[in-house]
Amino acid sequence: MSRFAFTHAPIMRGGRIVGVFSTDTIFDYLANDISKGMITERMQIRDLIQYTKLECHANDYFRFMSVQANTTEVEEAFSHSPHPEKRTALVFLTDNGKASGTLIAMVTPWDILSFLNSP
What we know:
Blueprint: E1 8-13, E2 16-22, H1 23-32, H2 45-48, E3 60-66, H3 71-79, E4 87-94, E5 103-107, H4 109-117
Parallel strand pairs: 3-4
Antiparallel strand pairs: 1-2, 4-5
């Protein structure tokens, strides 16, 4: 993740998004499960899975939109979070615009900035 400067990675099961792994996932694990010890090389995502659920991210909101959405709609999704205490961290474009849909693409705020600044 750090090599490509990604801050979030979707966790997929059967072509559907079931969670998002982020740096907050590690912090939440350490803050809540310190009795389990430190992060080790043998740990797997499944060891952290309860902290990756979409609703478990304290500061991030994940928006689902149809792959048919235009760039203006996606840009507005980042500007207007339905949860004022959370920022929209990612917009997932799915075939039906819902979390239950098949993931087609993932858009970050940086993607929007790059698009807006391109000639």
